[in-house]
Write a structure and sequence with these properties.
Distance between the termini of chain B: 12 Å
Oligomer: heterodimer
Shape of chain B: globular
Number of helices of chain A: 7
CATH architecture of chain B: 4-Layer Sandwich
Number of domains of chain B: 1
CATH topology of chain B: Metallo-beta-lactamase, Chain A
Radius of gyration of chain A: 20 Å
Distance between the termini of chain A: 44 Å
Structural class of chain B: alpha/beta
Number of helices of chain B: 10
CATH class of chain B: Alpha Beta
Helix content of chain B: 25-40%
Strand content of chain B: 15-25%
CATH superfamily of chain B: Ribonuclease Z/Hydroxyacylglutathione hydrolase-like
Order of helices and strands of chain A: EEHEEHHHEEEEEEEEEEHHH
Strand order of the largest sheet of chain A: 4-5-6-7-8-9-12-13-14
Shape of chain A: globular
Number of strands of chain A: 14
Largest sheet of chain B: 7 strands, mixed
Strand order of the largest sheet of chain B: 1-2-3-4-5-6-7
Strand content of chain A: 25-35%
Chain lengths: ~300, ~300
Amino acid sequence: MPKIKVSDTIFVSGTKFLLLSVLAFALPAASAVAQINISGEWAGASHEDFDDRVPGDVQGDFTGVPVNDAARRYAEAFDVTRVAVLEHQCQPYNLAHIYRGPNQFRIWEEKNPANQEIIAYRIFNGTYMQPRTIWMDGREHPPEYAPHTHMGFSTGQWHGDILTVYSTHIKKEYYRRSGIPSSDRTTVTEHFIRHGNLLSHVMIINDPDYLSEPYVLSQEFTLMERGNQNWLYNCEYVMEVPMNKNEVPFYLPGDAPFIEDYSKLFGLPFEAVIGGAETTYPEYQPRLEELIRELGGQGE
Amino acid sequence: MRGSLVAAAALLSSVAVAQTGIVQSVHVQGNVWMIVGAASNIAVQIGNDGILVVDTGGSETADEVLAAIRALSDKPIRWIVNTQAHSDHTGGNETISQAGETVNGNPAAIVAHENVLARMSAEDRPTTEWPLNTFFESGRDFYFNGEAVFLYHVPSAHTDGDIMVYFRGSDVLVTGDIFVTTHFPVVDLEYGGGIDGFVDGLNLALDITVPAFQQEGGTYVIPGHGRISDEADVLSYRDMTYFIRERVQHFIDGGMSLAGVQSERPAFDYEPRYSDEELPWTSEMFVESVYRSLEPASSR
């Protein structure tokens, strides 16, 4: 697992800021015995970033994502009707995306019967019925030539009461359904932090292909004491409209009709919406106000 | 400029050789293993009938490849199948063939499309490397090691002699360089390649592959270069190839010159992922090869 550097202040999920203590990351890795228990059924507290996470993002919403120029170009060519292509119909979210949906998940421990040490945490993500394993036994990540999966390959370590997980071998997908791409070279570092019946989940996403800096997100989950209602998602792809099955919808440069929908809906300058990492920092505020003034707004 | 494309395509083979690592094998599924570290990926099918090898890597690693095969099985090597003519896929032909034995007592038979033989013999490669068991139809099939083996010729893709090999019982598809996970499609125009053949070949691969669940697993794919994949990986590569082909076609239809097309950078959104600075096959070369594939004959 790589050493994780966390700055004192990091940008989290859209328009909010969150202070994270670096103290937890300085703690030595601890044995997987006698740590706080994170097993159980957890349901997303989706009021946080609700618009983004439940109904889904408005087309052209790039806010909060440190996209690079290649990601911008990719999203500009993205036609959301691509999901109608047979082979795309049953594609689930990947690890970097799945906790942003209306996800419920179940965690349970797999223990070594001889010494009761935790070998792995098993997780069943209700959204798209995605199983995942977080290996706690110190094993290495697979070689580069190993297959990728939607949930990737994960290893974990306890740092105090924070479970830190590092994942590689993740399939390509999107950070948002409007076509902000997530490459198959994405890696994800997660922190699972339990506070009573709440579980904070922090993701630090690195993508050498489509992000200019780490993309940091947080979500909250609530312990479900009376069980959970995981989705069933027995997806079966089907041709619903006669069409050439090998044609993939896309927009040519400059033709994307919905690319400014988010900007127009909220009266935000498109430059600020699509600006990437720069727009996620407080230092961007004067520039945003300037742009809004140019649009004829109040700049407040 | 066309000459530089040819040189780059040839150079890519030599760079692949230079990038060889430790030759090692990994079980893929059923009767099929993959050998990595030998300039190109090699598939090995093993059973009671003996050993079938798809591609043999570069000549520099032939002895290591043979040792890797022998570490898997001491059964006789009966068949070699070449997915194309380039030396990074056929350089080990002589070593592996001579170490093998058909049921008639000859060196292991080398099977390929007849265009591969034409290309290799024109290059003055040693006759012991030539595939002398050729076919000219759209495909061939036979039964070996308890499963049907299908050879699909894909006209004019990477070259004019490309074939994909499908092991029906093991459910493993070997694509040669029609599908790779490491770089943009290499359209070797001098060897009869073309962008439309690439798209057709990738569509054929999508037809053959069937995911097990939610676009994951099921049929596994051994690419010409890169990691073990499945349909979802082929899908994203097909989409990329298709989009760039369509964009270049759009610019050509608008009367744009090659220089104009290059200035539009139609592969820009995929450059971070597939344009490795260590490889000589750049984004510009790929775009030019697409342009040359599509430009009307009258403008050449």
